Amino acid sequence: MRLLDPRPQDCASLKSPDYANFGLSLFILLGILLSYLPQHHRIIYRRSSDGISPYFLLLGSTAGTSELANILLLSARELGCCRHGLTGFECFAGMLGVAQVGTQWLCFTTMYGPDHSTIAALYLLHLFLTLLSALFLLHTHPAFIPPLATAHGLLAALFTTLQYLPQLYTTFQRRAAGSLSIPMMLIQTPGAFVWAASLAARQGWAGWSTWGVLVVAGVLQGSLLGMAVGFEWSAWRERRAIRTRSGVGPHERTPLRLPQEPGGAS
């Protein structure tokens, strides 16, 4: 099959989009955008990314780039069909999976702070080499696209798995969430499994290297979420116990006691 110049019969399935899956995919796309708002707000509010491991950011953005390359290569047929005969809606419905991965990649990579210049430079080098190799093979050796897509999918799964290890270690050592947003993880952990199911329904087992990464991410992020919630809950209980021992209620302040005048009544 010619990927960038498909035959009409290759695009027939895209002319009848599944409206239920389209609605779910659109909902997931909006959910990805909204899920990152608490995290970006927390970093801006604290004016720091303290508590977020730089290796978590580097490995996560690298995994995102590999996953983006994976789904772009697997969607080469859809890209070709968009150029030949599909309506705007049919093309948009067929490329929603790419839009989801691209949005997630963009939202994550914008978590870099000014103190992450070195790892940001390493990431940009990886991004450049990944895109260059994918575009080169796409136009010169299309027969190598399926194995390259699988390789990028496996790299994304590997980097995603490794990504959470330094963050789990950092959170465990600090015994606090720091700048990590718990609301973001509360949204994204179950969302990863819903997203994986949506992509699996669209791509089937042939796209396991794409949606399998999301299953791995959901499991590991759920572990990080449980750890962060546990530490924050323990810290809240400790603060409450201190207030109780000092005789101050949860919503009370210690009353101000003014010194008495010398010789005044006792």
Helix content: over 70%
Distance between the termini: 97 Å
Which residues sit in consecutive blocks of at least 5 with pLDDT less than 50? 252-266
Strand content: under 5%
How does the SSE layout of this entry go?
Blueprint: H1 19-46, H2 54-74, H3 76-82, H4 88-94, H5 96-109, H6 117-140, H7 145-174, H8 182-203, H9 208-245
Helix pairs in contact: 1-5, 1-8, 2-5, 2-6, 2-7, 3-4, 7-9, 8-9
Structure characterization notes:
Helix 1 runs parallel beside helix 5 (96-109) and helix 3 (76-82) packs antiparallel against helix 4. The chain has helices at 19-46, 54-74, 76-82, 88-94, 96-109, 117-140, 145-174, 182-203, 208-245. The longest helix is centred in the C-terminal third of the chain and has 38 residues, at 208-245. The protein is built from nine helices and no strands. The relative contact order is 0.14. The chain is mainly alpha-helical. Helices cover 72% and strands 0% of the residues.
